[in-house]
Amino acid sequence: MATAHPHLAVEELSRSFGPLKANDRVSLHVARGSVHAVLGENGAGKTTLMNVLYGLYRPDEGRILIDGKPVEIGSPRAALALGIGMVHQHFMLVGSLSVAENVVLGLEGAGFALDLETHRRKLAELSRSFGFDVDPSELVWRLPMGVQQRVEILKLLYRNADILILDEPTSVLTPVEVGPFLDLLRRLRDAGKTILLITHKLEEVMSIAERVTVMRAGRVVAELATAGTSPRELARLMVGRDVVFDIEHERAPIGAPRLSVEGLRVKSDRGIEAVAGVDLEVRAGEILGLAGVDGNGQAELAEAIAGLRRPEAGQVRIDGAEVTHLSVADRLHEHGLGYVPEDRQRTGLVLDNSVAANTILRSYRVEPFARHGLFLDFPRIRAHAERLVRAYDVRLRDVDQPVRYLSGGNQQKVILAREIESDAKVLVVAQPCKGLDVGAIEFVQRTLLAQRAKGVAILYISTELEHILMACDRIAVIARGRITGILTPQEATAERLGLLMAGSRTEAH
Amino acid sequence: MPGLMRLLYATKSVWAILAALVVGAVFILIAGSDPIAAYGALFTGAFFEYHGIATTLVKMSPLLLAGLAVLLPLRAGLFNIGAEGQIYLGALFAAMAALYLPVMPGWIHIIICSFAGMVGGGLWALIPAYLKARHNINEVIVTLLMNYIGINLVSYATSGPMMEEGAPYPYSAEIPESLWLPHILPRTDAHLGVVIGLVIAMVMYYVFQRTSLGYSMNAVGSNPQAARYAGMSVRRHIIWSLVLGGALAGLAGTYEVLGLKYRLFHAFSAGYGYDGIVVAFLGGGHPLYAAAAALFLAGLRSGANIMQRAVGVPTTVVDTIQGLVVIFVAASLAFRFERSRWAEIWRRRKSLDRALEGEVAPPPPTPSGAQPAGAKPAAENAER
Q1: Total domains, chain A
Q2: pLDDT at A92
Q3: Does residue A86 contact residue A165 with C-beta atoms inside 8 Å?
Q4: Tens of pLDDT along B227-239?
Q5: Which of A144, A313, A482, B323 could form a disulfide with A265 if both were Cys (CB 3.0 to 4.6 A apart)?
Q6: Which chain A residues touch B380 with a CB distance below 8 Å?
Q7: Is A375 within a domain?
Q8: Which residues does chain A have within 8 Å of residue B218's beta carbon, measured at their own beta carbons?
Q9: Which of B220, B225, B229 to mutate to test the interface with A (most CBs of A within 10 A)?
Q10: pLDDT band (50, 70, 90) for residue A442
Q11: Residue where a domain stops, chosen among A239, A274, A296
């Protein structure tokens, strides 16, 4: 490990987006043949740094050195030529092509004639040598996420990359897949590859990385050896203060069931049964967390409850009234069902419309905003928007500004304000903190707790266990479209949740 | 960005039109004339002379209505290439109402003919609208191909069942004089159609800007997924925006019959439906700008004849100039200062297709709510 120069070094690198310094004089030293973690919260600047290394952004200042030599990385192709490869959080694979075809796609120097058979053989060999267990002739869409991830890595190895950048690689894996994945990274490291692991998960850092760089608000706050630190210290460095994982909050007594779901079955867009018979009950003044690995039916369940997706079977009731066949608008206006959708930009907002227009997105033809249901009362809409913006501390220039130009946290505040202030008695909240910074996450959590204190029933869907543990009264776990267990926060240890998330039902209490 | 640049940017369509005219001047030179004299004749003839203005207004009527027929569905993210066919069907229905309904007071009959024309154009647009909303079949192709059917239907009617006895050319009998649209400029052909078009443009502007209907159309066009979340039916918006667009095109055809030709002619529209696309495009999806664009294009058309007579430049040069205007305006949109309105409209169309895939049809009421509804045909369709 003690070579004269680090394999990859970043010196005093800065990159701004407008007034925001996404990277502020960042330095990083990665030894050859090591696993180096870059740890930080969402918005700490990890992804910007990686995109600079991969040639997607140009740095404003600073240098990148490989084996001590300064390099210019103008494009992903240039990065690959320098031996730097990246696996994005969202895979860049063509589902209808085979593994071998995906790997060869865009391969330089492949010439005009494509000798797929040779590639397939070489690939099978490569796969075997690292113990990847990937069949090159299999079609990619048939492969589980964990194997698709290995295909992404194979793609890089096949291009002789020896610095592998992995962006949140375990976020798509179930807890049981994580162990084997980390083993695979160890084999790659032992074969001399240098691995840069971007993550916000402390346990992973401690178990696999030799060194870790902690980032906060665009800056490097520490670079240290994992042997000499503890998860607690890392958490403190990452957040900038001691993290207390429980907030004291006032609460109302838990009341009668407000939202109940019985035997709900829902198909996904692909026609596969995504929700396979779910029963849930959320009471007044209660937050029920729904934990699970992404893609286990949470999205379909939320849409079915909200009225955006028609269930195949089962019932949804609000305060005892059956709403299964009501439209999304009726559920909101007649039964007080507020819904914060997972994809705030594609579903929750019309980005090019003003903030004011977005605050009435779901009330655009009801009094008092639309007189006779038709004539929009703009002064009133603007006043309403200004009230929400003040109450929810949305940072903006004015309410006529397109909502597109607000930060993610402020966009989420607009949605929360809109749903809560339409007098919601039941809130379905899907991944409300995805991609938000710490401050915004705290705001969202506090807002939900305040609603709970008012007797609102909240279904809180998230893949982030810490967030769920912080706010929820009970935690339901979903795996492959079924509820595998419901735990209290005291019972919800990482092991138990992990087992339930992996689909084992035995733990259910 | 400094104020001057901002101003140049905001008026870039105007600069593009000027650039197109400069390049057009080269063609006039090639045709062997003095461009300044030619343009002088063209614009004086089109806009600064009594009969020329009348001719411009006559041509503006179908151009504006067809432009609005394209623009209305565009607001909801749909491309209506079928205004031409809708014009023909509108004219056919209006002519039938004019010729075959019993005698009644003229103004009532005119209103009924207008209504019939709107029904004709609207029904013609209902076919692609239905196919789009129910089966997500590309409306560009369907509306385009239906133009040919519409044109030939009128050819059949005018050379067969509706043809005037002993006519040398396929056309219908003349409609009664009581149905002729009033003229707005004495001693000219300029008829009320253009005024009606302007009123409709203003109403559309108001609806787009100030009503919940405009709000929901815009939401469907710019983010159909969010529109569904807001409780809007993407499907219903698709159907109504295309049908109403078709009705406007039908009105364009109606007023060609009632205001100008007084008969239903075989092949009477000089491609107004296609020019409507240009009008909507130059107007940037905005009804009042579309009116300005229609006026400009109508002026080019009417000035072309005067130019030909005055300086001997063939009128086809004007077709070239119109083409240049489209190219230059399209190119000017590549100079981006902020998100281009047109990139936006392209994006709308794509995301509309995606949202249709996921649309849940409004569920039929269940008898007592006791038995949850299983897979209904509509749901199977939507869940594809």
Answers
A1: 2
A2: 83
A3: yes
A4: 999 999 999 999 9
A5: A313
A6: none
A7: no
A8: 350, 353
A9: B229
A10: confident
A11: A239
Q: Is B356 on the interface with A (CB under 8 A)?
A: no
Per-residue confidence (pLDDT) for residue B370, from 0 to 100: 39
Question: CB contact, 8 Å: A414 with chain B?
Answer: no
- pLDDT confidence band for B353 (50 / 70 / 90): confident
Q: Which residues of B touch A328 (CB under 8 A)?
A: 228-231
Tell whether A343 is covered by a domain.
yes
- Which chain B residues are Cβ-neighbours of A327 within 8 angstroms? 231, 362
Query: Given A309, A352, A361, which is nearest B230 (Cβ)?
Result: A361
Question: What mean pLDDT value characterizes chain B?
Answer: 87
Give the residue among A239, A98, A87 at the shortest CA–CA distance from A172.
A87
Q: Among B212, B219, B228, select the one facing A373 at the smallest CB separation.
A: B212
Q: What is the pLDDT of residue A20?
A: 74
Put simply, the answer to whether A312 touches B219 (Cβ < 8 Å) is no
Q: Which of A188, A205, A239 is the last residue of a domain?
A: A239
Question: Could you say which DSSP state residue B178 is in?
Answer: G
User: Of the ranges A179-193, A495-509, B3-17, which is most confident?
Assistant: A179-193
The pairing of beta strand A211-216 with beta strand A194-199: unpaired
- Asked whether residue A234 falls in the same domain as residue A261, the answer is no
* Cβ within 8 Å of B, A 123-142: none
Q: What percent of chain B has pLDDT over 90?
A: 68
**Considering CB atoms only, which of B211, B344, B372 is closest to A324?**
B372
For the residues B315-321, what does the mean pLDDT come to? 87
Question: Angle formed by the axes of helices B287-311 and B35-47, to 10°?
Answer: 120
Binary contact (B229, A373; C-beta < 8 A)? no
Residues A483 and A432 in one domain: yes
- Interface contact B235, partner A, CB < 8 A: no
Chain B, 247 to 276: residues with Cβ < 8 Å from chain A are: none
Shared-domain flag, residues A195 and A296: no
Please report the pLDDT score of residue A438 as a whole number: 67
Whether pLDDT at B327 is above 60: yes
pLDDT at B70 over 90: yes
Domain shared by A205 and A288, yes or no = no
A19 domain-assigned: yes
CA distance A355 to A404: 9
Asked whether the beta carbons of residue B212 and residue A370 sit closer than 8 angstroms, the reply is yes
**Cα distance between residue B353 and residue B13, in whole Å:** 30
Q: Which residues of B touch A364 (CB under 8 A)?
A: 212, 215-216, 219, 230
Contact yes or no for A357 and B373 at CB 8 A: no
A302 and A200 belong to one structural domain: no
| Cβ-contact B97, B116 below 8 angstroms | yes
A131 and A79 inside one domain: yes
pLDDT (mean) for A150-175: 85
Would you say residue B38 has pLDDT above 50? yes
Q: What's the pLDDT score for residue B365? A: 43
Mean pLDDT within B168-183: 92
Q: Point out the residue among A271, A308, A376 whose CB comes nearest to the CB of B383.
A: A271
Cβ atoms A441, A473 nearer than 8 A? no
Cα separation, A442 vs A448, in Å, equals: 10
Contacts of B231 in chain A (CB under 8 A): 327-330, 332, 362
| Of residues A294, A272, A290, the one with CA closest to residue A280 | A290
8-state DSSP, B172: B
Domain match, A302 and A448 both: yes
What is the residue-wise DSSP string for B84-131? Answer: HHHHHHHHHHHHHHHHHSPP--HHHHHHHHHHHHHHHHHHHHHHHHHH
Q: Please tell me if residue B383 touches chain A, with a CB cutoff of 8 Å.
A: yes
pTM of the complete model: 0.74
Distance, in Å, from the CA atom of B216 to the CA atom of A369, rounded to the nearest integer, reads 14
Q: What is the CATH number of the domain that holds A317?
A: 3.40.50.300
Tell me if ipTM is over 0.85.
Answer: no
Is A381 in the B-facing interface, judged by CB distances under 8 Å? Answer: no
Subunit contact B212:A365, Cβ cutoff 8 A? yes
Q: Which residues pair with B183 in a beta bridge?
A: B191
Domain carrying residue A284: 257-349+407-501
pLDDT digit string (tens) for A115-145?
788 888 888 888 888 888 888 888 888 887 7
Q: Are residues A232 and A267 in the same domain?
A: no
A437 DSSP 8-state letter: -
Distance, in Å, from the CA atom of B154 to the CA atom of B88, rounded to the nearest integer, reads: 7
